[in-house]
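Tokens for chain A. Residues wanted.
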């Protein structure tokens, strides 16, 4: 059984807000590093999410380290360049930030991170809206 660290608890707290009929799968792959954590499937789209959990730096101008490994960045960028729906959601004690459209590659300062934080219900809603109502 996986450890119940802050990242695992953060993910579970958002998954509890999804309907029991909502389809998602954990994508642990012991043979290939970097694969996104979860795949979500809906009527209109699918979505791959890499989940992270960090402590946001106290100083506003400090660059936030999202905690992505080189293998993860390679996998995310490769799938994104293929046109796949790829997100990185970085959780914190205050909530989480959703990085789309390759924005996980751009530096973000702590102040900017804090201004983009969503609560867990909003993150769950964004996931559902994306896979069920994607244009």
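Reply:
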């Amino acid at each position: 059984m996986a450890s119940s660290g802050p990242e695992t608890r953060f993910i579970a707290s958002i998954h509890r807000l999804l309907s029991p009929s909502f389809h998602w799968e954990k994508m642990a792959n012991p043979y290939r590093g970097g694969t996104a954590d979860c795949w979500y499937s809906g009527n209109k789209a699918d979505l791959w999410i890499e989940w992270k959990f960090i402590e946001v730096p106290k100083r506003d101008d400090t660059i936030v380290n999202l905690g992505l490994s080189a293998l993860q960045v390679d996998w995310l960028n490769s799938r994104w360049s293929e046109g796949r729906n790829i997100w990185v959601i970085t959780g914190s004690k205050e909530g989480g930030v959703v990085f789309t459209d390759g924005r996980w590659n751009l530096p973000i300062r702590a102040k900017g991170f804090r201004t983009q934080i969503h609560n867990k219900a909003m993150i769950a809603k964004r996931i559902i809206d994306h896979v069920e109502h994607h244009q």
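The first strand starts at residue 23 and ends at 26. Strands lie at 23-26, 38-41, 46-53, 86-92, 95-99.
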